[in-house]
Amino acid sequence: MSDEPRVWIRQFLYLAILTGFVNLMQATAGITLGMAASSPVLLAFGLDAFIGATREFVLARRIASHGTAEERDPADRVLFRAVGGGYLLVGVAALVAGISALWRGGRPGSTLLGVTLAAVSMLMIPIIGSYMKSLAMEVGSAALKEAAVFTFGNSYLSMVLLIGLLINVGMERWWGDGVAAIVMSPFIVQKGIQIVMEASPGEFEEP
């Protein structure tokens, strides 16, 4: 591999690590605010972000390993399957929490900080995902491109979170929070199934 693709892969590595820390901040804020406001959608968003952070760090480990042209590490498969299982658990938990919130009735506590979290996430994640995709295209790696699209797709959860919180806070409709958690559920589950079914995230070197 020439020096230029190695530079792009290194940039992708740093971006994956950065995204992992961004997801950790999202997770901390989402879980904290969700517990304070008894908001199932914020909790689901926070837990998904925590699994997302784990995925980015595992991805970074894998990129670093393949950047040295070493043989694929079988441990990476186990780690990614564990991440996929985490997504599946969070997706099911989001569905159960959303249904439970609708069944109990009652409006979750309003949180403007949650709205801010959703809005900032909607701005940041597409930018990071787009830059990742650009780097992946420069390298010519389908696996890196898939990882970038995966990251970019997380902006969907930010949009659902924002809409759900605005229905709750802005329109004062108690059901917005629970419905948003239910809407999140299949997307989170789909991410888990996708990761579990993939034997590996692919090669990180030029074909």
Describe the structure.
- The chain is built from seven helices and no strands.
- The protein has helices at 3-37, 40-67, 74-104, 112-139, 142-153, 155-169, 176-197.
- α1 packs antiparallel against α4 and α3 packs antiparallel against α7 (176-197).
- Helices cover 83% and strands 0% of the residues.
- The protein is mainly α and 207 residues long.
Short description:
With 207 residues, the chain is mostly helical. The protein has helices spanning 3-37, 40-67, 74-104, 112-139, 142-153, 155-169, 176-197. Helix 4 (112-139) packs antiparallel against helix 5 (142-153).
List the helices and strands and how they pair.
Layout: H1 3-37, H2 40-67, H3 74-104, H4 112-139, H5 142-153, H6 155-169, H7 176-197
As a percent range, the share of helical residues equals over 70%
- Average pLDDT works out at 83
Low-confidence stretches: 203-207
Instruction: Assess the beta-strand content as a share of residues.
Output: under 5%
Indicate the radius of gyration in whole angstroms. Answer: 18 Å
H-E string: HHHHHHH
Bulk shape: elongated
- Kindly report how far apart the N and C termini lie: 10 Å
Query: What structural category arises from helix and sheet content?
Result: mainly alpha
Q: Give the biggest sheet.
A: none
> How many beta strands in the DSSP annotation?
0
Please give the count of helices.
Answer: 7
